[in-house]
Write a structure and sequence with these properties.
heterodimer; A: mainly alpha; elongated; B: mainly alpha; Four Helix Bundle (Hemerythrin (Met), subunit A); 7 helices
Chain lengths: ~100, ~170
């Protein structure tokens, strides 16, 4: 019926998730770590939408879950950047290695 | 597998998405990394269109390519805007992480490569937004309202966190 099998979408999501995971673990700039996490959440969204069309019981629910994930990801990015700016004001650094103390 | 239009569209979109991700890992300037990721986000929106999720694709363009990229650029501009993320991580640590991620990818790929789900015809593409709206306001009304509370909390929380501490500054002056 469809030319693209569901495994192709899952493999694409897997590749993007792995890129995001590697970036989040190796990059030193906090903004890049945050955006790598966004990439991982996007990969999860691809899975949700793919299963909402090609899953065992296709329904619209997968797309609604993807919308909720996008909302929570946006909230997370906003709060993360606010924390980053507050930290930068106190410590003058965006390097994630130097953000290792609980108190100033 | 035939070379139909859908297959070609999927392959080109997936290629652009993966290239954007690889550029994120390999570029040196922070601003360039964020701009490379815009390509990934836009092509993921194209993937959603292929999966007959037009509303999610529009939301993806609006939120990710629009809002989150701009807010990340603001975050970079307000901190170290000419930062080049220097590779000061140890070579061994990077290699070990790469092997770990590769092992994870292999383990998941074993799980999905011969996944065979019988495709059933769906009507997701017919009035996609209307379907989402009906479902959201009938089955998912409580999560929907909780999400609005979450967004309000995130809004107030980030304002309070990022606000300049006026009293402390007045004392310092």
């Amino acid at each position: 019926m469809s030319a693209v099998p569901v495994q192709a979408y899952l493999a694409l999501a897997l590749i993007l998730f792995c890129i995001g995971l590697y970036g989040a673990l190796t990059k030193r700039n906090t903004v890049i770590v945050l955006i790598s996490i966004e990439l991982m959440l996007n990969a999860v969204n691809i899975n949700l939408v793919a299963f909402s069309k090609y899953g065992i019981a296709p329904s619209i629910t997968g797309q609604i879950f993807a919308l909720f994930v996008i909302t929570v990801a946006a909230a997370e990015a906003a709060v993360g950047l606010a924390i980053l700016i507050a930290l930068y004001r106190n410590r003058q650094t965006v390097n994630i290695d130097e953000m290792d103390t609980m108190k100033h | 597998m035939t070379f139909s239009g859908e297959f070609l569209a999927f392959m080109s979109l997936a290629l652009v998405a993966v290239i954007g991700g690889v550029l994120l890992l390999n570029l040196t300037k922070v601003v360039h990394m964020v701009v490379a990721l815009v390509f990934t986000f836009v092509s993921i929106a194209g993937i959603y269109v292929l999966l007959s999720a037009e509303f999610v694709a529009a939301v993806q363009i609006l939120i990710y390519s629009g809002a989150i990229t701009i807010i990340m650029l603001f975050g970079i501009m307000l901190t170290r805007h000419n930062d080049t993320s220097e590779p000061q991580t140890g070579r061994w640590r990077k290699l070990l992480l790469f092997l770990g991620v590769l092992g994870f990818a292999f383990a998941v790929y074993i799980g999905i490569y011969n996944l065979d789900i019988a495709q059933t015809p769906t009507d997701l593409h017919v009035n996609n937004t209307e379907q989402i709206g009906i479902e959201l306001y009938s089955k998912f009304i409580i999560p929907f309202e909780v999400t609005s509370v979450l967004l309000l909390v995130a809004l107030i929380g980030s304002i309070v966190l990022a606000k300049r501490d006026d009293e402390k500054e007045a004392e310092e002056e």
